[in-house]
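Wed. Picked up where I left off yesterday with Translation initiation factor IF-3. The coffee machine is broken again, so keeping this brief.
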Amino acid sequence: MQPPVKSGPRYDNMIQSDKVRVIDENGENLGVMYTNEAIDQANGVGLNLVEVSPNADPPVCKFLDVGKFRYEAQKKANAARKTQKTQDIKEVKMRPNIDTHDYDVKMRNVNKFIDNGDKVKITLRFRGREMAHQELGMDLLNRVRDDVEETAKVEAFPRLEGRQMLMVLAPK
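Structure written out below (tokens, as returned):
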């Protein structure tokens, strides 16, 4: 049975390369040396030999405190996660024979969602005999597309799914 794989950078005896390029705690390049010799030097200073660039030839290692290095990396990842913006899909439902005031209210919402950086799914639901006049629904979705032309782009062009016509808009 194998031991569990540790996440994070390899350090000290986990480094698999025979020779490594070494950078000391002050950022000075000590050159290429044998891994065992570099580990001994790092331990002499009270630090670990941490692999910072494993894909280089030879791998680049630095004299660091592993615990502090992991802690800093975790803090950096948390800060990045905190600042990232998730993009939601907001849905606006309409009917083919929508009145102008109702249309204006729906479009205000669409513009607000797009300004917030969200995608907008416009759902046009047909009832009963409205299915016979799908061109009215297509005209309405084209009108929506023209009204948001400056702020949004059409990500999914209008398509019919059963009794609904769908279109997805995304911010430019």
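Quick read: The chain has a mean pLDDT of 88.
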